[in-house]
Amino acid sequence: MSSNLRAIQKRLKSVTSIQKITRSMRMVSAAKYARAEKLLSDVKDFGLGTKVFYNLFPVEKEAKDGGGVAAFAVTSDRGLCGACHNVVSKRVVKYLEGVPENPQVVCVGEKSRSILRYRFKDNILLTVGQVGQKPPTFLDASRIVIEANELGLGEMSWFIAYNKFESIVKYETSEMEIASVKSITDSVEMYKYEVEEPEDLVDYLEFSRPALLFYAMCESSCSEQSSRMTAMDNASKNASEMIGRLQLQYNRNRQRLITTELIEIISGASALEKEE
User: Fold this and answer.
1) For a surface tag, which of 47, 79, 193, 215 has the fewest beta carbons within 10 Å of its beta carbon?
2) Do the beta carbons of residue 228 and residue 171 sit within 8 Å?
3) Element (H, E) at 164
């Protein structure tokens, strides 16, 4: 019985330590969420405005503008935030299943790579690490785009999967399809815009890709922090419930042990009295 008490006490101590960790992580995530939400509010209008422009040039899955497609899975390196990384990876998998050509995959964050490598190991052309430790910047997105262009992805159409922040307890997996530069410059939809020099349009298209990727990274960062904050809050509540059950179990077993020892002592004393 005493060994059972020691086991319960050891488990109680372990759960209490875990609860301290989850509470600390919840506080850290809350601080990061506040910064991520402010950053997202600053870049949201700019990102949505650029996205409206690309909505005029839908990417057809059959043709892929004649240059293939590159899929970007925007996640991070850190876990313990629910299923926000899994849903992005599943959205990429679902999209790539309908691509007839050999697609290229860019994993923004190690979490998406650890999931996608089982299905598209030979298609992962670029993996970007050190994502999620600090708030994303436009410079980070520009470096990713430059590296992707150096690998030959600049002439392709792009598919970006990310989590769109809705509220502190809700996010939705979203996507952006970015047509290639050639398909946009050759499109009849360009008559809606007055472009004095063709170079100006090319410059804007080259600038808009890192802008949209930066917007997607900000949305995903805010969604991740809110999801982690919710997950750690739920984990702390579950730990509190488990601590209560373990404490009750410990007290019952301890009381049972004390009662058993008292019965043995009283029985022994009664036996001695009868002998006398």
Assistant:
1) 193
2) no
3) strand 157-167
